[in-house]
Amino acid sequence: MNKIITIGREFGSGGRTIAKMTGEQLGIPVYDNELLAKIAEESGFAKEYISEKSEHTSLGDLVARGLSGFGNYTQMTADAYLWKMQRKVIIELAEKEPCIIVGRCADYILRDKADCLKAFIYASLEKRAERITTVYGDVSKETPEKRLRDKDKRRGAFYSYYTDMAWGDPHNYNICLDSGALGFEKCRDILCSLYTEK
Amino acid sequence: MNKIITIGREFGSGGRTIAKMTGEQLGIPVYDNELLAKIAEESGFAKEYISEKSEHTSLGDLVARGLSGFGNYTQMTADAYLWKMQRKVIIELAEKEPCIIVGRCADYILRDKADCLKAFIYASLEKRAERITTVYGDVSKETPEKRLRDKDKRRGAFYSYYTDMAWGDPHNYNICLDSGALGFEKCRDILCSLYTEK
């Protein structure tokens, strides 16, 4: 059985960077953007479309915006199909080799897999705002805080829609790390030590 | 400035035991029941009363039970007084010496203290039910799951009432550890390493 780490993360928490640092230290592959390519291949959808949709359902968006109504059934069918492909790719990856999978409800999809360490990386709004301004630049007309809140809301709605669980609830994970308070290196060290000893 | 660890914990998660193990390893005192004695001394209330009330306000109880109304003002005044004493004792302890403080909103009370590591210990309902049956015995007519849910609800209501934050939300802590999945020793080791390196 392969040892897997899934990393859920808040936007701007550096979860993706911590995943890469952990993968390098452990010598195992990290699937983040690489996952998109695989889902694209499997589903026939364009990578850009998946990047937009694989963590934000149209229905999730509706819920996040507080709208209701009949929705767009064609879009919902496409969402359901994409979710199925995403699930398939993640399960196959986890069966193939030890690896780290970032986001995309991998923790939920692999919830019954014994040898899977489920981590969640988060940080305060202030720390995340600081980080997205530094890393992504001040590209938006919105304040960083507004962008973060919107992104949190959309990811949360997606997660709840497919998993029936609250996103960021510690009970969905084995460990939750505040990257802003602990620092990236310490987060990496903790994940590596849990992976090695497990 | 003293280094402090605050440990919030779910009932049955073993948070108190992990606090003791961590304190022993680090050679610093742990305040849990010891805290009750100090609050009793400061407030003039009996220790048993504080044990019952220091994490369960009367108002919290009302909220948890979904009741509303005018409430009992005398009781509410006593609650407010007790909270004030609890706050005073925790702040004084943190100023006096490096230590570990279990529960009682210490994470919130010490939120502006730079050298304070805020941890939350939790576990699945199944693991906690198993533990409370083993440790406390099958003393209640209620199922362990029902007892846990009630206790969670009451602690949560108390925490939210005094802190305006959601209990168990990772953002209130620097690290959240699933003691059921990781094991007590590993939780202790992570806390010790964070304390030593901080």
Strand and helix layout:
Two copies of one chain form a homodimer.
Chain A: E1 4-9, H1 15-26, E2 30-31, H2 33-43, H3 47-53, H4 58-64, H5 73-96, E3 99-102, H6 106-109, E4 116-122, H7 125-136, H8 144-163, E5 175-178, H9 179-182, H10 184-197
Parallel strand pairs in A: 1-3, 1-4, 2-3, 4-5
Helix pairs in contact in A: 1-10, 2-5, 4-8
Record keyword descriptors for this entry.
alpha/beta; 5-stranded parallel beta sheet; 198 residues; homodimer; 5 strands; Rossmann fold; 10 helices
Produce a short descriptive summary:
Chain A is of the alpha/beta class. Helices cover 58% and strands 12% of the residues of chain A.
CATH topology of chain A: Rossmann fold
The tally of helices of chain A reads 10
Measured between the Cα atoms of the first and last residue of chain A, the distance is 12 Å
Content of β-strand of chain A: 5-15%
Shape of chain A: globular
CATH-assigned homologous superfamily of chain A: P-loop containing nucleotide triphosphate hydrolases
Biggest sheet strand order of chain A reads 2-3-1-4-5
Low-confidence stretches of chain A: 65-70
Q: Main interface pair?
A: A-B, 21 and 21 residues
Characterise this structure.
Two copies of one chain form a homodimer. The first copy, chain A, is α/β, with parallel strands linked by helices. Chain A has a single domain (about 5-195), classed as P-loop containing nucleotide triphosphate hydrolases (Rossmann fold, 3-Layer(aba) Sandwich). Helices cover about 60% and strands about 10% of the residues of chain A. Chain A has ten helices and five strands, in the order βαβααααβαβααβαα. In chain A, helix 4 packs across helix 8 (about 145-165). The radius of gyration of chain A is 17 Å and the shape is globular. The interface of A and B includes residues 174, 175, 176, 182 and 194 of A. Strand 5 of chain A pairs antiparallel with strand 5 (about 175-180) of chain B.
